[in-house]
Design goal:
The protein has 126 residues and is mainly alpha-helical. The chain contains three helices and three strands.
Amino acid sequence: MQKPTLPNDGTEGGLPPGAPNSHKTSGIYSGEELLALAERQRSERIRRGWGRWRFDRKCDCLWYAKPGQREEDAYWIPLHDIRDQEHFYQWLMHLMEKRWVTPADIGDFCRAIDDLKSLRAMGRHG
């Protein structure tokens, strides 16, 4: 049985430059290579942030700053407050009540929690 190939999105082999073995021309990648790519992408998101959300490793917090707002005036969420799914939903509902939070901000918050949860599951906290 032949391995499935990824759709070609205009990059070599269907993966972005810098992907594991992006020099391959066959478009066939192992599960290990795809997991490594996903990990690099997750690490990059954690470093750069999600929309207006940023991760502060020192205090293990997510913070949200409106355009032009200083970091010290931002809205901070300690991640130890989000211990399980119930607490995540409580924070999600709390954020949805804020007039200044947009639907895009909510999606970015969910992506941030998912990325950070994955980081912790792999034993690489913060």
